[in-house]
Amino acid sequence: MLAENIFLKIINRQLPAKIIYEDDLCLAFHDINPQAPVHVLIIPRKEIRTHSDITEEDKLLLGHLHLVAAKLARQLGIDNGYRIIINCKEGAGQTVPHLHFHLLGGRIMGWPPG
Ligand code: 5GP
Fold this sequence. Notes:
Helices cover about 20% and strands about 20% of the residues. It contains 2 helices and 5 strands; from the N terminus they run αβββαββ. The chain has a 5-stranded antiparallel β-sheet, covered by helices on one side. The structure holds guanosine-5'-monophosphate. The site of guanosine-5'-monophosphate (5GP) has 14 residues, from strand 2.
């Protein structure tokens, strides 16, 4: 079972977060347990539980999240090499049941990922 959707509480300002970007569709904030010098989470305001739950109606939203990720990577100085990760469901390590992009950079990334 995935845990409670704490990201909704960040969206609703019931839980503090270091928010670095927001607009009418999404928010970006620093991960509380960073796995790289830069580790930002980009989340849609819309409640989408997992990547597997996206639908045709989310096409523009998903493109928007990617554009925000690329813009933030430039702003954060990691556009010489960064990684975007979406963990989908428990088997891939998803712990928060709200779609999110991990934007990681600032160090050399290994491959294959764990
Ligand atoms: P997942 O494991 O679902 O792919 O990623 C969830 C991410 O959310 C983890 O990297 C975790 O460190 C981060 N996280 C969990 N709780 C909080 C919180 O309360 N605030 C912030 N900023 N990040 C959190």
